[in-house]
Amino acid sequence: MKKPPNKFVFKRREPEIPSRLTTIDAFPDPDDVYLSECHLEGLRLDAPTDAPLRIESSLLNRVNLANNRFSTILWKDLRLTNCDLANLETRSLTLIRVEFINCRMTGLRATEAECQDVLISEGDLRYTQFRYAKFKAAEFDTCNFEEADFLGADLSGSIFRKCNLQNAEMNKVKLVNADLRTSNVEGLHLRAEDVRGAVVDLTQAMLFAPLLGIRIE
Questions:
Q1: Torsion sign over Cα 81, 90, 131, 115
Q2: 127, 110 Cβ separation under 8 angstroms
Q3: In angstroms, rounded to a whole number, what is the distance separating the alpha carbons of residues 103 and 122?
Q4: I want to staple 51 with a disulfide (CB 3.0 to 4.6 A). Which of 2, 45, 47, 66 is the partner?
């Protein structure tokens, strides 16, 4: 008797943040920002164009990084709450065990990002660009991704809970085991082969039916 295929089990690792953090009241040298085991509250960073930004094992609350352009961003074991990342741009983004809680990320641009164990919850991500990004063990919770650009991204195994994906670009994406149930997929731009392996509900299946050449009568 043929065995049924193994069911995909999702598991995201949370950030590993020390209980004792150093509170800082200003960013260090803006030409090369490196922070570790810090608590940042209500700060704004105006960095030179193409500066690197590295932060590890820290908490960021109401931090404003909007309209900056960094050559590289490396964030590991971070939790960002109510932060402003609008129009942030980088040529190289690496996220490892990072959580974004209610952050403004409109127009963020991060092509070919590497994202592992990432949570984005209740954020505004309209017009974000994650072209050819790779997401592993990612959760998106109540996010507004309207007209976001995921062209060629690998979203395999990602979970989208109550997200707005209206008119988002998802051509050439990988959605194997990605859970789209409860999210708005109306107007989603993708091909029949792109949706293969995704987990959808009945209403979404009816929306995808013309794309797949299926008649529901």
A1: negative
A2: no
A3: 7
A4: 47
Confirm whether 31 is domain-assigned. yes
Among 118, 159, 167, 117, residue whose Cα is nearest residue 142: 159
Domain boundary among 41, 71, 104: 104
Kindly state whether residues 126 and 75 are assigned to the same domain: no
Domain with 39, as residue range(s), is 21-104
pLDDT tens digits for range 43-98 = 999 888 888 999 999 999 999 999 999 999 999 999 999 999 999 999 999 999 99
pTM of the model: 0.89
Instruction: Looking at the structure, tell me whether residues 145 and 96 fall in a common domain.
Output: no
Residue 6 lies in a domain: no
Burial 67-105, CB ≥16 within 10 A → b, else e? ebebeebbbbbbbbbebbbbbbbbeebbbbbbbbbebbb
What are the tens digits of pLDDT across the range 103-122?
A: 999 999 997 899 999 999 99
Q: Are residues 69 and 122 in the same domain?
A: no
Q: pLDDT, tens digit, for every residue of 118-146?
A: 999 998 999 999 999 999 999 999 999 99
The total number of structural domains in the chain stands at 2
